Amino acid sequence: MKLVASFLFFASLALSTLATNCPNNGVLSSDGTHCYQFINQNQDWWTAEGICKAFGVHLPSVTNLFVNTDLAKIASTGITNSTTIWIGAANNNAQSKWTWTDGTKWSFTDWAAGQPGSATPRCVYLDVKSGLWSSSDCNAKRPYICATPNNAAKCPPTCPSGWAYYEETKSCYKVYHNANWADARSYCESVGASLTSLLSLSELQFVNDFARTGVDMTNLQEMTWIGLYSPFKDADWFWVDGREFDFQWWAPSQPDSPGRENCAQLITDNNG
């Protein structure tokens, strides 16, 4: 489960909803969904994935920035002979399509500058210091982690005080006040959350309803920052948590002023 926040900004945060025991001295992910087994032996990507599969699991898939940061942090303490590890992403087909070995939908990336590279076939490794990804020849040898789903009995989801839980996204949300977009983003990340991404109309409606509670709609300074921004002059837009920008709900004539207005806000009214 994640935490999401808004200044007026809206933040989201991932929380654990599972029991905390991992078998075989595995390390539990912060969101409680996986146990990570460290393998401090250098193997090529194929062999690493094959060893994980022999135990009925896979190299780790990474679905969002929270998981990516958590995996890098955990790996930095458990992997002793390298600063990089294989993860379960590869591009081994003629369609040049990246996939996760466990079948997870490809919806998040965190490539380092200049990546992915052009080697074929291409497999992905994670730099545990920066959290950034690079691709390389799959025959290169690195340590790795096997990720086991934590199938322990679920505990009721619990959000920190002042946060609201939304079942569809299994996330906690909170509204904050009085900050510019950059400060809002920094604050969210300092508490382990992120400015919210909006991936569906139902999530947008939930965030809209929650954010406008008690808001003076005549004060445009209280419109709600979300985690959407355009860092370049070509007007491409991105979510700060790395999610795919494939759901849009722009107001008429928006976005405008490319290169000058490069952060997005939610008009918290009856329509969103």
Automatic annotation (TrEMBL):
GO terms for biological process: immune response. Residues 1-19 form the signal peptide. Keywords: Disulfide bond, Signal. The keyword Cell division does not apply. Gene3D superfamilies: Mannose-Binding Protein A, subunit A. InterPro entries: C-type_lectin-like, C-type_lectin-like/link_sf, C-type_lectin/snaclec_domain, C-type_lectin_CS, CTDL_fold, Eosinophil_major_basic. The keyword DNA-binding does not apply. SUPFAM superfamilies: C-type lectin-like. It holds the Pfam family Lectin_C. Residues 31-147, 168-272 form the C-type lectin domain. It comes from the Eukaryota. Transmembrane segments: none annotated. This is C-type lectin domain-containing protein. It comes from Panagrellus redivivus.
